[in-house]
Specification:
heterodimer, A: mainly alpha, B: mainly alpha, 0% strand
Protein backbone atom coordinates (compact mmCIF):
# COMPACT_ATOMS: atom_id res chain seq x y z
CA UNK A 1 0.00 0.00 0.00
CA UNK A 2 1.28 3.45 -0.90
CA UNK A 3 1.56 6.03 1.88
CA UNK A 4 -1.04 8.78 1.93
CA UNK A 5 0.07 12.35 1.24
CA UNK A 6 -0.46 13.73 4.73
CA UNK A 7 0.47 17.42 5.04
CA UNK A 8 3.57 17.70 7.21
CA UNK A 9 2.01 20.47 9.33
CA UNK A 10 -0.88 18.25 10.35
CA UNK A 11 1.40 15.39 11.35
CA UNK A 12 3.62 17.72 13.36
CA UNK A 13 0.54 19.36 14.92
CA UNK A 14 -0.64 15.92 16.05
CA UNK A 15 2.77 15.31 17.60
CA UNK A 16 2.56 18.72 19.32
CA UNK A 17 -0.88 17.98 20.76
CA UNK A 18 0.24 14.57 22.06
CA UNK A 19 3.35 16.17 23.60
CA UNK A 20 1.21 18.83 25.31
CA UNK A 21 -1.13 16.20 26.75
CA UNK A 22 1.86 14.28 28.10
CA UNK A 23 3.39 17.45 29.56
CA UNK A 24 0.09 18.27 31.30
CA UNK A 25 0.03 14.77 32.74
CA UNK A 26 3.57 15.11 34.11
CA UNK A 27 2.68 18.45 35.72
CA UNK A 28 -0.70 17.52 37.20
CA UNK A 29 -0.52 13.90 38.35
CA UNK A 30 1.00 12.76 41.64
CA UNK A 31 0.96 9.00 40.99
CA UNK A 32 4.49 8.04 39.88
CA UNK A 33 3.20 5.33 37.52
CA UNK A 34 1.07 7.83 35.61
CA UNK A 35 3.92 10.36 35.56
CA UNK A 36 6.22 7.78 33.95
CA UNK A 37 3.46 6.91 31.49
CA UNK A 38 3.08 10.60 30.59
CA UNK A 39 6.82 10.79 29.92
CA UNK A 40 6.34 7.85 27.56
CA UNK A 41 3.52 9.78 25.83
CA UNK A 42 5.92 12.70 25.34
CA UNK A 43 8.68 10.46 23.95
CA UNK A 44 6.14 8.84 21.64
CA UNK A 45 5.10 12.27 20.35
CA UNK A 46 8.77 13.08 19.62
CA UNK A 47 9.08 9.79 17.75
CA UNK A 48 5.99 10.68 15.70
CA UNK A 49 7.54 14.03 14.79
CA UNK A 50 10.71 12.22 13.59
CA UNK A 51 8.69 9.75 11.51
CA UNK A 52 6.69 12.59 9.91
CA UNK A 53 9.90 14.46 9.09
CA UNK A 54 11.47 11.29 7.68
CA UNK A 55 8.38 10.65 5.56
CA UNK A 56 8.50 14.21 4.23
CA UNK A 57 11.81 13.50 2.49
CA UNK A 58 11.25 9.78 1.91
CA UNK A 59 14.46 8.93 3.77
CA UNK A 60 15.26 6.28 6.38
CA UNK A 61 16.82 8.69 8.91
CA UNK A 62 13.51 9.40 10.63
CA UNK A 63 12.99 5.72 11.39
CA UNK A 64 16.56 5.41 12.71
CA UNK A 65 15.94 8.27 15.12
CA UNK A 66 12.69 6.53 16.07
CA UNK A 67 14.67 3.43 17.01
CA UNK A 68 17.08 5.48 19.13
CA UNK A 69 14.11 7.11 20.92
CA UNK A 70 12.69 3.62 21.46
CA UNK A 71 15.89 2.46 23.18
CA UNK A 72 15.95 5.65 25.30
CA UNK A 73 12.33 5.00 26.32
CA UNK A 74 13.09 1.38 27.21
CA UNK A 75 16.12 2.32 29.36
CA UNK A 76 14.20 5.17 31.00
CA UNK A 77 11.22 3.02 31.90
CA UNK A 78 13.41 0.23 33.33
CA UNK A 79 15.30 2.62 35.62
CA UNK A 80 12.16 4.60 36.44
CA UNK A 81 10.15 1.57 37.48
CA UNK A 82 13.11 0.31 39.57
CA UNK A 83 13.15 3.69 41.32
CA UNK A 84 9.37 3.48 41.78
CA UNK A 85 9.68 0.09 43.52
CA UNK A 86 12.45 1.42 45.80
CA UNK A 87 10.38 4.52 46.66
CA UNK A 88 7.36 2.37 47.44
CA UNK A 89 9.49 0.18 49.71
CA UNK A 90 11.03 3.06 51.63
CA UNK A 91 8.29 5.69 51.78
CA UNK A 92 5.35 3.29 51.57
CA UNK A 93 3.57 5.44 48.99
CA UNK A 94 3.68 6.14 45.26
CA UNK A 95 2.86 9.82 45.82
CA UNK A 96 5.62 11.94 44.24
CA UNK A 97 5.11 14.67 46.89
CA UNK A 98 6.14 12.26 49.64
CA UNK A 99 9.62 12.09 48.12
CA UNK A 100 10.26 15.82 47.98
CA UNK A 101 13.26 15.49 50.30
CA UNK A 102 16.34 13.62 49.14
CA UNK A 103 16.89 11.98 52.53
CA UNK A 104 13.40 11.03 53.65
CA UNK B 1 -10.94 17.33 2.08
CA UNK B 2 -9.85 14.36 0.05
CA UNK B 3 -11.04 10.93 1.11
CA UNK B 4 -7.46 9.68 0.90
CA UNK B 5 -6.62 11.38 4.19
CA UNK B 6 -9.60 9.92 6.05
CA UNK B 7 -7.67 7.00 7.68
CA UNK B 8 -5.06 9.45 8.96
CA UNK B 9 -7.68 11.70 10.58
CA UNK B 10 -9.46 8.70 12.07
CA UNK B 11 -6.27 7.29 13.60
CA UNK B 12 -5.22 10.74 14.82
CA UNK B 13 -8.59 11.23 16.55
CA UNK B 14 -8.34 7.83 18.23
CA UNK B 15 -4.78 8.61 19.37
CA UNK B 16 -5.77 12.00 20.81
CA UNK B 17 -8.89 10.77 22.62
CA UNK B 18 -7.21 7.70 24.08
CA UNK B 19 -4.16 9.70 25.23
CA UNK B 20 -6.43 12.25 26.92
CA UNK B 21 -8.31 9.45 28.66
CA UNK B 22 -5.03 7.74 29.62
CA UNK B 23 -3.72 10.86 31.35
CA UNK B 24 -6.99 11.57 33.21
CA UNK B 25 -7.89 8.10 34.57
CA UNK B 26 -7.81 7.45 38.31
CA UNK B 27 -7.01 3.76 38.00
CA UNK B 28 -3.47 3.11 36.63
CA UNK B 29 -4.54 -0.10 34.88
CA UNK B 30 -7.28 1.68 32.92
CA UNK B 31 -4.81 4.44 32.04
CA UNK B 32 -2.32 1.88 30.71
CA UNK B 33 -4.95 0.16 28.58
CA UNK B 34 -5.94 3.50 27.04
CA UNK B 35 -2.23 4.14 26.47
CA UNK B 36 -2.00 0.85 24.54
CA UNK B 37 -4.86 2.03 22.29
CA UNK B 38 -3.03 5.31 21.76
CA UNK B 39 0.14 3.43 20.77
CA UNK B 40 -1.76 1.21 18.34
CA UNK B 41 -3.31 4.30 16.72
CA UNK B 42 0.16 5.84 16.44
CA UNK B 43 1.37 2.64 14.78
CA UNK B 44 -1.43 2.97 12.22
CA UNK B 45 -0.28 6.55 11.53
CA UNK B 46 3.32 5.32 11.07
CA UNK B 47 2.07 2.75 8.58
CA UNK B 48 0.06 5.39 6.69
CA UNK B 49 3.14 7.64 6.58
CA UNK B 50 5.12 4.93 4.80
CA UNK B 51 7.17 3.64 7.74
CA UNK B 52 6.03 0.01 8.16
CA UNK B 53 9.12 -1.04 10.11
CA UNK B 54 8.57 1.71 12.68
CA UNK B 55 4.91 0.70 12.97
CA UNK B 56 5.85 -2.91 13.76
CA UNK B 57 8.49 -1.80 16.28
CA UNK B 58 5.96 0.52 17.92
CA UNK B 59 3.56 -2.36 18.49
CA UNK B 60 6.24 -4.87 19.52
CA UNK B 61 8.38 -2.75 21.83
CA UNK B 62 6.08 0.02 23.08
CA UNK B 63 2.76 -1.80 23.36
CA UNK B 64 4.30 -5.23 23.81
CA UNK B 65 7.24 -4.70 26.14
CA UNK B 66 7.15 -1.29 27.84
CA UNK B 67 3.46 -1.27 28.74
CA UNK B 68 3.69 -4.87 29.97
CA UNK B 69 6.55 -3.75 32.25
CA UNK B 70 4.23 -1.04 33.62
CA UNK B 71 1.48 -3.60 34.17
CA UNK B 72 3.89 -5.91 36.02
CA UNK B 73 4.82 -3.07 38.35
CA UNK B 74 1.15 -2.19 38.93
CA UNK B 75 0.55 -5.84 39.85
CA UNK B 76 3.63 -5.95 42.13
CA UNK B 77 2.47 -2.82 43.98
CA UNK B 78 -0.98 -4.41 44.40
CA UNK B 79 -2.76 -1.23 45.50
CA UNK B 80 -6.29 -2.42 44.72
CA UNK B 81 -9.19 -0.23 45.79
CA UNK B 82 -6.98 1.66 48.26
CA UNK B 83 -5.11 3.06 45.27
CA UNK B 84 -8.31 4.44 43.76
CA UNK B 85 -9.23 6.18 47.02
CA UNK B 86 -5.74 7.68 47.28
CA UNK B 87 -5.94 8.86 43.68
CA UNK B 88 -9.28 10.60 44.29
CA UNK B 89 -7.67 12.31 47.24
CA UNK B 90 -4.61 13.39 45.20
CA UNK B 91 -6.28 14.50 41.99
CA UNK B 92 -8.75 17.36 42.47
CA UNK B 93 -10.38 18.79 39.30
CA UNK B 94 -9.12 22.32 40.00
CA UNK B 95 -5.53 21.05 39.92
CA UNK B 96 -5.87 20.69 36.15
CA UNK B 97 -6.44 24.39 35.47
CA UNK B 98 -3.03 26.04 35.79
CA UNK B 99 -0.83 23.32 34.16
CA UNK B 100 -3.34 22.96 31.30
CA UNK B 101 -3.27 26.71 30.63
CA UNK B 102 0.54 26.73 30.60
CA UNK B 103 0.69 23.71 28.27
CA UNK B 104 -1.92 25.24 25.96
CA UNK B 105 0.21 28.38 25.67
CA UNK B 106 3.23 26.27 24.70
CA UNK B 107 1.08 24.25 22.29
CA UNK B 108 -0.20 27.37 20.50
CA UNK B 109 3.37 28.63 20.21
CA UNK B 110 4.30 25.35 18.54
CA UNK B 111 1.32 25.61 16.17
CA UNK B 112 2.27 29.21 15.38
CA UNK B 113 5.78 28.06 14.44
CA UNK B 114 4.34 25.30 12.26
CA UNK B 115 1.76 27.47 10.49
CA UNK B 116 2.71 28.31 6.94
CA UNK B 117 2.36 26.92 3.43
CA UNK B 118 1.35 23.29 3.28
CA UNK B 119 3.88 20.60 2.28
CA UNK B 120 2.56 17.08 1.65
CA UNK B 121 4.89 14.16 2.31
CA UNK B 122 6.64 12.59 -0.66
CA UNK B 123 4.57 9.42 -0.62
CA UNK B 124 7.34 6.88 -1.01
CA UNK B 125 7.43 4.09 1.54
CA UNK B 126 10.79 3.43 3.23
CA UNK B 127 11.32 -0.32 3.42
CA UNK B 128 13.01 -2.08 6.35
CA UNK B 129 15.90 -2.93 4.01
CA UNK B 130 16.75 0.73 3.45
CA UNK B 131 16.46 1.37 7.19
CA UNK B 132 18.86 -1.49 7.92
CA UNK B 133 21.38 -0.32 5.34
CA UNK B 134 21.37 3.18 6.82
CA UNK B 135 21.41 1.88 10.40
CA UNK B 136 24.49 -0.30 10.02
CA UNK B 137 26.20 2.03 7.57
CA UNK B 138 26.50 5.70 8.50
CA UNK B 139 24.61 5.34 11.81
CA UNK B 140 26.62 2.45 13.28
CA UNK B 141 28.04 4.70 16.01
CA UNK B 142 24.49 5.53 17.12
CA UNK B 143 23.80 1.79 17.40
CA UNK B 144 26.83 1.42 19.66
CA UNK B 145 25.69 4.34 21.81
CA UNK B 146 22.20 2.86 22.06
CA UNK B 147 23.65 -0.48 23.15
CA UNK B 148 25.71 1.22 25.86
CA UNK B 149 22.62 3.13 27.01
CA UNK B 150 20.63 -0.09 27.23
CA UNK B 151 23.46 -1.74 29.18
CA UNK B 152 23.45 1.19 31.62
CA UNK B 153 19.68 0.86 31.94
CA UNK B 154 20.01 -2.86 32.61
CA UNK B 155 22.64 -2.37 35.31
CA UNK B 156 20.64 0.48 36.87
CA UNK B 157 17.42 -1.51 36.90
CA UNK B 158 19.21 -4.50 38.44
CA UNK B 159 20.74 -2.34 41.15
CA UNK B 160 17.50 -0.49 41.95
CA UNK B 161 15.41 -3.64 41.81
CA UNK B 162 17.25 -5.35 44.66
CA UNK B 163 15.04 -6.03 47.61
CA UNK B 164 16.89 -4.35 50.49
CA UNK B 165 18.92 -1.52 49.05
CA UNK B 166 19.05 0.30 52.40
CA UNK B 167 20.73 -2.67 54.13
CA UNK B 168 23.41 -2.85 51.48
CA UNK B 169 24.30 0.81 52.02
CA UNK B 170 26.33 0.08 55.14
CA UNK B 171 24.04 1.02 58.00
CA UNK B 172 25.84 -1.18 60.52
Amino acid sequence: MDPVAVPVEQGLALAAILFSIGLTGVMVRRNIIIILMSVEVMLNACALAFIVAGAKWGEADGQIMFMLILSVAAAEVAVGLGLLLQINRRVGSIDIDETSRLRG
Amino acid sequence: MSTELFPFYLAATVALVSTLLAVTRYNPTHALIYFIISLLATAVIFFLLGAPFAAVLEIMIYAGAIVVLFLFVVMMLNLGSRGDELEHQWLKPKMWVMPSVLCLILFFELVYVLSGPSHPITGTAVSPKEVGIQLFGPYVLAVEIASMLLLAGLVGAYHLGRRYLSDARGQS
